[in-house]
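fwd from M.: "can u put these together and see what the complex looks like"

so here's what she sent:
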Amino acid sequence: MQQIINFVIRNKNFLLFLLLFAVSVALTIQSHSYHRSQFISSANRVTGGTYGVFSSVSQYFGLKTENQRLQDENQMLRQQLYNQQNAQLSNDSQLLIDSVYRVVAAEVYKNSYSGNYNFITINRGIRDSIKQDLGVITDKGIVGIVDQSSAKYARVISILNKNSKINAQLKNSNHFGTLEWDGASPNTVQLVDISKFATVAVNDTIVTGGKSAIFPKGIGIGRVTEVTDDIGGDTYILDVELFNDMTDIGFVYVIENRDKKERLELENLSNE
Amino acid sequence: MSSQFLKFLLRFVGLVMIQVLICNHINFLGYINPYVYLVFILIYPSQNNRTNFLLAAFLLGLTVDIFSDSGGIHAAASVFAAFIRPGFLKMSFGSMYEHSAIKFGNAEMGSLLSYVALMVMSHHVVMFGLDFFQLAELLSILKNTLFSGVFTIVLSVIIILLFDSNK
C-alpha cells in the first residue's frame, strides 16, 4: 500500500498528464461523431458574447458588400412576388398561419472552414425558437443544419463538416443522393449515391431534395463540376461547386418546417 | 505571487483572444493558421510547479477548443507540449536551465529557435493528428503541421523577442 502511494506521488505529473490527455482525446472523439459533441461548444454565453462584441466591430468593414447582397435579394424577392398571380398582399395574417415554413434571420458570429469539422455560430437561440435540426440557408444556397442552441446562440453544423449529410437532388430530374464533404476544398462538396440511371452532365444544378423534412425542396446548392463513378460502380459521385462562398457568410436565414413533427410521425408509422 | 498570477491570467486571456478572434481567421492559402496561444506554454517560467503548469496548459487548450468548436484537439496538444517541455528545454538550453530561470527573450537566438521549433512541431503533430484522426490522412497531417508550424514558429519568436526581453 505504502509503495502504491509512493508510486503515485513520485509519478504524479506523469499520471496527471495521462489523465488530461485522455480527457482531451475523449472530447475529440466525441466531437467527431454527429450530435454527440455536447460539452465543448461555442454556443454559450461567454464565447457567444465575445464573438458578438468582435462581430459588432468587424461587420462595419463588410457593410457595402452586405448592402449590395441584400439589395440583390430584395430585387429577386420582389420579382417573385409580382409574378405570383394569386398572391394576396392584404391577407398577411392568413399567409402567416397557413405557411409551413417559418424563417428567422440571424447574424453569423463565427464561421470556420479550414478544419475537417467546421461549425458556425449564430446569434439566435432558444429565445427565438431555434432548435436542433433546423435548416440554415443564405439567399444563394444552403449553409448547414442547427446542431445545438443555448438561450441566445446556436451552433450550426456547416456543410463543410465531415459529419454533415444532407439530402439533395438534381434539379432537372428527381434522382437524389446524399451531400457530403471530403474535407479538401471549401468550395466543393460531394453528392454521392446518385443512381446510374440519372443523366448527369457537368454544370447541372443541384438543389435540396424533399426527402428530409429539414429543408424545403428546391433550395440551391451548387453546380456539378465533375462526374465520377463510385468504387463499386453502381452509383455516381458528383463534385458540386457551391453557389455560396462558404468563406464569406455574414447573414443567414434559419428555416423551421412546422409540419416536420407530423411528417416524421407519419413516416415512423409506416416504417413499423 | 498574486501579481504573478495576475500576469499569467492577463497573458492567458490576451493570447486566447488573439488566437480565436484573429489567428483562427487568417486561413492563409485556405487552411494555414498560426497557433500563437502556444506562446503561453513556451514562456511559462521553467522553474514553476509542473503540476500547475500541466493544468494551466490543459485549461488553455480547452478554452481555445470551446471557442473554435474543435472537441479536445488543442487541449490534448497543449498538455502534450507542456509535458515534454523539460526535455526540449534541456536539449536546447543545456541542463543549466534547471538551476537558473531562463529569460527566453534574451536567450541565444539558435537555442531559442530550436526550442520553439521543437515545441511547436510536436504540438502541431498531435493537434493535426487528432483533427484528421486517420492514418490514411498522414500526408495532410504532415503538410498542415509543416506549413502552420512555420507560421507559428515565426510569429511566436517575434512575440517572445518583443514582449519577453528586458532591454
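replying to her w this: The radius of gyration of chain B is 15 Å.
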